[in-house]
Structure prediction request, 255 residues.
Amino acid sequence: NDVPVDTKKATVLTITNRDTNSTGNFTSVRSDKTLYFNNSISIPPAHKSGDIELAYLNPDPAKVFVIENQKQLLDEAAFAGELRTELAKLPRSEQEVIVFVHGYNSSYTDGVFRGAQLQNDLSVPGVMISYSWPSAANPLGYSHDRDSVLFARDDLQNALELIRKSTNAPILLVAHSMGSLLVMEALRQIEIEKSGWSKNALSGLILIAPDISLEVFKKQAARFGGLPEPFAIFVSQKDPALKLSARVNGVSTRL
Prediction:
């Protein structure tokens, strides 16, 4: 369907180490190659704050989120140039980079749409980047996703360092669910090599319903040469992914 003129538009850059299938769609297969994109997201006129309106078959842009256009960026240099171009479109006071790392049971489009939804609903200034790691996007794929987090640590580290090298704009890092484990692991690696990097490079770190054991989090945080400020953790007793995680891991609480 054609995109109506009254839909809202959002730009979300993506970095992903997901593989693609023969039709070009992203899969849960782990890839040694990193891909970069600039996505134009159409948000329906009747969008309700807090929701992501979806339809997997014949999506109608008048009613649901769609990727209106997706431009592949050939390499790191092209991504860096695209990031600087997007930042230059904003007033200097709004030139910030928000990196969103999705959680367990999430597809490529889930992460991109969530980034667009957060930026739209919360009126977050800056350029949104979705880091898409190879989640199975399946409620039964918890073990696959945990392994994918381990697989993606180096790639997320490289992505964060690329963003930092590409611009002097501050970086706000936001992670959800199991994505929080990936973020903390990647930052821990950076801190071992470059103590204080996180505090200097990040304008803030937000973990939403983090799927991390408290003991593991304490060990991760101990490696930091000072945690970035602000450092915020948002929790919910009703989060279904955390309830599943607690059952799978044989514990009653997560961070």
Notes: The longest helix spans residues 142-166. The mean pLDDT is 91. Residues 143 and 205 are 26 Å apart (CA to CA). The longest strand covers residues 26-43.
